[in-house]
Amino acid sequence: MTTTTYAVNGMTCGHCSAAVTEELGKLPGVQEIRIDLNAGGTSAVHVTSESTLDETAVRGAVDEAGYELAAPGASA
Q1: N or C end of the chain: which has fewer CB within 10 A?
Q2: 55: which residues sit within 8 A by CB, 6+ positions away?
């Protein structure tokens, strides 16, 4: 198991968190998702998975939910 934290821009509410959780939950190997919502700022999304996830797949899932994965190194 590995937990990776991603910075996501644009989430403002519980519905936003639910949309991101739903899309990330579709990725193979994802076990748990926890979001520290920072409404209107950059939120920390903690994803526990069987192995390290492909960042392109994570970016695609976040995009599908309607939000933006922040550039590497952005604070979450």
Answers
A1: N
A2: 69
